Amino acid sequence: MNPSFPDHFSSVSGRYADYRPRYPQALFEYLATLVPRDAVVWDCGAGTGQATADLARFFPRIIATDASASQIQAAPPIPNVEFRVAPAEQSGLPDHSVHLITVAQALHWFDFDRFYAEVRRVLIPDGVLAVWAYGITEVEGDLVNAVVQRFYSQTVGPYWPPQRLLIEAGYQTVPFPFTETTPSPSLRMEVEWTLEELLGYFGTWSATTLYSKANGHSPLPALAEELAALWGDPRGRRRVTWPVSLRIGRLPPATKPTDIAARE
Q1: Fewest CB within 10 A of the end CB: N or C in the chain?
Q2: Of 80, 46, 49, 93, nearest to 65 (Cα)?
Q3: Which CATH superfamily is domain 10-137+162-188+242-263 in?
Q4: Residue 152: other Cβ atoms inside 10 A
């Protein structure tokens, strides 16, 4: 692992795979329109494969990498996916070998300059970089949502890594030195969760992990008690949503056939 990689998730890899929400189908349908049907995809910062599994339904070959070995080990086997442990800035992929690079909820952890140099090295001419992040959780019910927002901003708020601000800004403050495709589709994630599932998701937050380490106890039992008083039937489900911010960049095309040959 890259020694500079801020690994906040190895300790929760199993729960991460169980409780992270899925990205909307419309996102992957859109990505499939940007590159050829036989495109090779590098899913960078893949974690336990939340986005990888959906990408694999649209593209014939995926190379999924993450700097965390425990995250990769927790990913389910997928026939057309090769999982590898590798940092974003040093993928080990051949020059100009992929058509599409995807980064789901991970760009804020990368060294931007080094990663973008790797993007230019690995993408073919006219290749596409797609990065996205989902924002602050909203839960159905004003009283329940108010408790959730307080937990996010006040209880564990001081423990969010500074990179969290990049997500809250929808990646609009992240440098992105590529020709952008606009407009991107309007997207959001939506699930129907029980209280147990919602608490399981909160348990995967890096801020929750850091709070627990700093204070010697988890903040979740107190939150569970407060939410249980408002939730109603604990087996009942409430709608949980997140806004999704997407940025699409494209490399310049080759100017003549000899340029393509020279890069392959």
Answers
A1: C
A2: 46
A3: Vaccinia Virus protein VP39 (3.40.50.150)
A4: 17
